[in-house]
Write a structure and sequence with these properties.
single chain; 107 residues; mainly alpha; Arc Repressor Mutant, subunit A; 2 domains; 4 helices
Length: 107
């Protein structure tokens, strides 16, 4: 993922905070997002994603938090490595079992 972040985390946090603080002044969340997005120079869809992500992180919206997603990714990587190691061990075990049978047959 080679996405460059045009906006710093501080700007993102401030924009999300502005949406949350001024949400009641607009008829809808989208109206608040559109108004504030133009002020900080981003597209409304981007700001809306930031707001949704913050709501998920804060527990106000259903979804997978960043830390949970990272943990799942780490566990999936670990499972992949363990499966690879198991496959290597199975092959080695079969190789040595065959070698032992060959040795016994020659004796």
């Amino acid at each position: 993922m080679n996405k460059s972040n045009k906006f710093s985390p501080e700007v993102r946090e401030r924009a999300v905070r502005m949406v949350q603080e001024h949400r009641g002044e607009y008829p809808s969340l989208w109206a608040a997002v559109e108004s504030i997005a133009t002020k900080i120079g981003c597209v409304p869809q981007t700001l809306l994603e930031w707001v949704k992500r913050q709501e998920v992180e804060g527990g106000a919206r259903d979804g997978v938090t960043t830390s949970e997603a990272q943990r799942v990714k780490e566990l999936e990587r670990e499972v992949k490595e363990l499966r690879r190691a198991n496959e290597i061990l199975k092959l080695a075990s079969a190789f040595f079992a065959q070698a032992e049978l060959d040795r016994r047959l020659k004796s």
